What does this fold into?
Amino acid sequence: MNGQIAAHGRDAPWQFIQLGRHLERADLTRILDAGAVALLQSAGARR
It folds into this structure.
């Protein structure tokens, strides 16, 4: 990964989680994790 976030494909939620883990603020991490969960749920709903 080169640091850019791609908003497509199955890797997108994991990139959000990895980005969140690099942030120092726990509240931002929770926001990014919630975003990743939402992406996973929306991806599952489209199948």
Remarks:
- The mean pLDDT is 73.
